[in-house]
Amino acid sequence: MMAPVRSRMSRVVTSSAWFAGGSTGDLYVRNFKRNQPAWDAIVASVASHGAPPRRVLDLASGPGEPARSLAVAFPKASIVATDVEPGMVAKQASYLEGLPNVEASRVVAGEDLSAFGDASFDVATSCNGVMYLDRPRAFAELFRVLDSAGRLVVTFWRDHKISTLAKELIELLDREKDLGPHLLNPSSCGAVGVLEADLQAAGFQVVERVDGAYDFGPYPSFDDLYSGAILTFEAAVNKAGLESAAKEDLMRLAKAKLHDIADARYVTADGSYCIPGNAFSLIHAVKPPAP
Questions:
Q1: Is the dihedral of CA 99, 103, 104, 109 positive or negative?
Q2: Has residue 19 got a pLDDT over 60?
Q3: Distance between CA atoms of 242 and 239, rounded to whole angstroms?
Q4: pTM summary value
Q5: For residues 125 and 135, is the Cβ–Cβ distance under 8 A?
């Protein structure tokens, strides 16, 4: 019989201190760091279930989270950070530097964990990455590499406002036909029960679901908001393979439309911008102990 699922609600908001984004100037990294509340939720869930972790696999770590947060919170645990993109793994080298319990950073696809043996980890985590995977394959692999009673803690978007904005821009610009098929949907497994069913099919028992939300912001100016909010739209434009001039024209139009939307919805009393209510969920699942 499946263990009862605990469900709770939390509301967390990013700190403006995260806006700085270090010296890299990398737009992805700057906006990536706005997800600190989700990383904190993963750390809290790992800490609240079972013994402190010994060896943790962090899947789809991007530039290095929540691997870094886990390494700091659990200094006696060995942490393995991964990502499918070599460029992200390269960023992990500097971001995770100085943490002696980070065992390795590896280029790994979630659907193929053959680099790791059976029962190699007692905890696996992933922040906002599972919705991009072939989940049956990925969860089967995670089940294999976790030891008996191993724990899997993942977060995923229920309502990713920047993706909603990208879809709205595509519709406003009347480009559904050529851009729509290339638009990622980070909220694809956000409906209650979708991810739970995938995990149960792989053999996991779901023991907790936490629903929360946080803001993207504050952005000091529209240009700062644009640098983060346009990434999903721009990815669809790049995948569409438009000619350079056509792409530049389209991005110029999108910026003007986004400026109108931002001024109408997201400007705050002090003139900065904030995109509220980015809703996410956390699921904590367990591999049943061996009989």
A1: negative
A2: no
A3: 8
A4: 0.87
A5: no
| Euclidean distance between CA atoms 49 and 228, whole angstroms | 35
Nearest to 227 by CA among 30, 20, 18: 30
Contact in structure between 186 and 163 (CB atoms under 8 Å): yes
DSSP class of residue 109 equals: B
- Per-residue pLDDT tens digits for 89-124: 998 999 999 999 998 889 999 999 999 999 999 999
Cβ atoms of residues 289 and 148 within 8 Å: yes
Per-residue pLDDT of 205-243, as tens digits, reads 999 999 999 999 899 999 999 988 898 899 899 999 999
Q: What is the dihedral of CA 219, 220, 226, 227, to 10 degrees?
A: -80
Measured in degrees and rounded to the nearest 5, phi and psi for residue 150 equal: -65, 155
Q: What is the DSSP string of 36-70?
A: HHHHHHHHHHHHHSSSPPSEEEESS-TTTTTHHHH
CB 124 within 8 A of CB 152: yes
